[in-house]
């Protein structure tokens, strides 16, 4: 999701018991994501610029800010960009210590199409839940609060995104950023509240309220020299994202107080073949379309997680 707001409040970090983390987790995740290799091994897409295009990006200029941000997040040439993240899913309940519930691994396949007013940003996003010990995708999960085993419903958001204007009705585009000693970090603190696709009257076991609300805290960390390199249309990036959500509907927690916190870290990949093998196999079998970024022909075919889950529940009612 995208926002151009720069007037956003900070959100407090939820303290948790880190002793619950598996000891081999950090090393296994870093290896699977390739963090132990040199950044120079990352092959970014290149496109030879027009004469005179080599220049320092002015991140206070809306067009340069937008180009720099999308170089970090995707690829401004129109080619596909792929990123992968991993992290824990933590419980967050009043009066209770946070605990690890499972892991979440995210795949984003994006594409940016430039036009006269900005870029069409297209994205397919999939979040796969896994066992924190085996790191394998899971199909069922034992809920330690309700003491029931439930079916896992992985997150799939199709053709997410939209058009980003460099100078739109809300004013010039400006993604928040920090710059220091040759490093640039774009960041977005996104808070949302909107009518939920799962209302309490019809979906009480799954819905926390009639309003779907939460937050997404995003960081994209790049080198200034890469942003300014006119031959790079996509730059090496390390990312972090923290999602603060209501209970995932398939957990069947209904209106239980609290929710989940999903902190994750990741980077761009050279191709989908760099996805850890067990997750690539799962995607090939279950959602192969999420291994490829949308095109302009797909931009109006949007469907999000809660809509998918509602259709799943409705189809089971009718069967």
Radius of gyration, Cα only, in angstroms? 20 Å
**What's the total helix number?**
5
User: What portion of residues is helical?
Assistant: 10-25%
Give the terminus-to-terminus CA distance. Answer: 34 Å
The largest sheet, given as strand count, sense and whether it forms a barrel, is: 9 strands, antiparallel
Q: Taking strands numbered 1, 2, ... along the chain, how are they ordered across the largest sheet?
A: 6-3-2-1-13-12-11-10-9
Broad shape: globular
Structural class label: alpha+beta
List the domain count as a whole number.
1
Per DSSP E runs of 2 or more residues, the count of β-strands stands at 13
Low-pLDDT runs of 5+ residues are 1-52
Q: What fraction strand? A: 35-45%
Q: Compute the average pLDDT.
A: 86
Task: Tell me the series of helices and strands, N- to C-terminal.
Answer: HHEEEEEEEEEEEHEEHH
Verbal overview:
By secondary structure, this protein is α+β, with helices and mostly antiparallel strands. The chain has one domain. The chain is 16% helix and 35% strand. The chain contains 5 helices and 13 strands. The strands form 3 sheets. It has a 9-stranded antiparallel sheet. A two-stranded antiparallel ribbon has the order 4-5. A two-stranded antiparallel ribbon has the order 7-8. The longest helix is centred in the last third of the chain and has 14 residues, at 305-318. The protein is globular and about 60 Å long.
């Amino acid at each position: 999701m995208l926002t151009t707001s720069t007037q956003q409040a900070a959100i407090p970090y939820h303290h948790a018991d880190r002793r619950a983390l598996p000891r081999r987790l950090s090393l296994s995740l870093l290896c699977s994501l390739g963090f132990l290799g040199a950044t120079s091994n990352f092959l970014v897409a290149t496109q030879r610029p027009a004469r005179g295009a080599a220049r320092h990006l002015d991140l206070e200029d809306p067009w340069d800010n937008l180009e720099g941000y999308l170089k970090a997040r995707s690829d401004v040439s129109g080619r596909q960009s792929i990123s992968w993240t991993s992290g824990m899913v933590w419980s967050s309940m009043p009066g209770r210590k946070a605990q690890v519930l499972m892991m979440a691994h995210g795949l984003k396949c994006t594409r940016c199409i430039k036009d006269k007013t900005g870029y069409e940003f297209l994205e397919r996003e999939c979040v796969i839940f896994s066992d924190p010990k085996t790191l394998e995708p899971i199909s069922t999960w034992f809920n330690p609060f309700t003491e029931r085993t439930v079916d896992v419903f992985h997150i799939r958001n199709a053709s997410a995104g939209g058009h980003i204007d460099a100078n739109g009705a809300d004013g010039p585009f400006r993604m928040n950023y920090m710059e220091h000693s040759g490093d640039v970090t774009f960041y977005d603190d996104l808070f949302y509240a909107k009518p939920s696709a799962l209302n309490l009257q019809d979906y009480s076991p799954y819905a926390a309220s009639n309003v779907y609300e939460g937050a997404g805290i995003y960081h994209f960390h790049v080198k200034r020299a890469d942003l300014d390199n006119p031959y790079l249309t996509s730059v090496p990036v390390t990312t972090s994202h923290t999602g603060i959500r209501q209970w995932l509907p398939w957990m069947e927690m209904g209106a239980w107080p609290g929710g989940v916190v999903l902190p994750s870290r990741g980077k761009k990949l050279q191709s989908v073949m760099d996805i850890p093998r067990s997750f690539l196999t799962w995607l090939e079998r279950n959602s192969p379309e999420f291994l490829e970024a949308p095109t302009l022909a797909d931009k109006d075919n949007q469907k999000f997680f809660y809509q998918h889950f509602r259709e799943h529940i409705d189809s089971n009612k009718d069967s």
